[in-house]
């Protein structure tokens, strides 16, 4: 059988970012399970995304693998890491965590629309942190909404004075385990230890002790 080489697919276009978490912020692109995507992240105020993962449903477990990160000059930064990476919350999770709607950026939801006012009023604020999400890190994220809706941003680049937030790119690969929250009894995001093992070995390690 002959295979025709596919032309590269431009998967991410320029789209407005968001600075709140909410299940109704529409995805800006989709990626298949096992597929990878590059996010071009700008500034320390907005997140890039949400990225929809085809077939992801509430109760599934998403493993997000950080393939690489770098500044806009294109160079790979071995110690760079996103300050924020997560999946959209469910409506039930929003609860009483809503932040101030003032200044809410909601991606493709137009700022002057009725939808914007409604979503902003119940959206959760975004908090960054400095975690070891460097290249080769694998993060397990419970899926709460159809498509998972992954967002990331606040790219950190360490120097001698600490972490500096700069514009840059972030390459992620998405792996999906159906009903993974139940299978692995995981309800919160988990940062997997970085080992020299393959993804298979890491997943095998996760299953140890699970009857
Ligand atoms: Zn940092």
From TrEMBL:
Pfam families: FmdA_AmdA. GO terms for molecular function: hydrolase activity, acting on carbon-nitrogen (but not peptide) bonds, in linear amides. InterPro entries: FmdA_AmdA. This is Formamidase. It comes from Actinoallomurus iriomotensis. The lineage of its organism: Bacteria, Bacillati, Actinomycetota, Actinomycetes, Streptosporangiales.
